[in-house]
Amino acid sequence: MPDLLVNLLKLPASENNVQSDVVIRPGQPFELTPIRQFIQQNFSTSWADEVSVGFANKPVTVFIATIDGQLVGFAAYECTRRAFFGPMGVLDQVKGRGIGRSLVLACMKGLREMGYVYGIIGAAGPIEFYQKTVGAVVIENSDPGIYRDFLKTSRDK
Description:
157 residues, alpha+beta, 4 helices, globular
């Protein structure tokens, strides 16, 4: 999967596209364990490891999505490499409610607030989603990128 480049100066205007029962907010340092467990159980151990870096950042560079106090999604930035977005995951049963879009925008705006002009989405999965959501463009010759030497573990999905 190729990397994508996002012009952070041309992000869409902030708009709340999630339903009223969805809360998008930064993760708090004292929430590290339940958020890591959620990511490991629903996505992968390697993503949980990456997000741990976001909790070490000051301020924390991890956003979460909740419904009635229950985690349903997350996104992080400045974890894998400087100016990188990801990982991100939203539970299948709540997809299509604007949660992923809101998480991506929150993180991209966080990168912009750090002073970056461009953000990188490493090994982007749903390329069309990122193109539509934040105007991402494919970086030529970026596959396999930084994940080429990724160690597979039996716990990763």
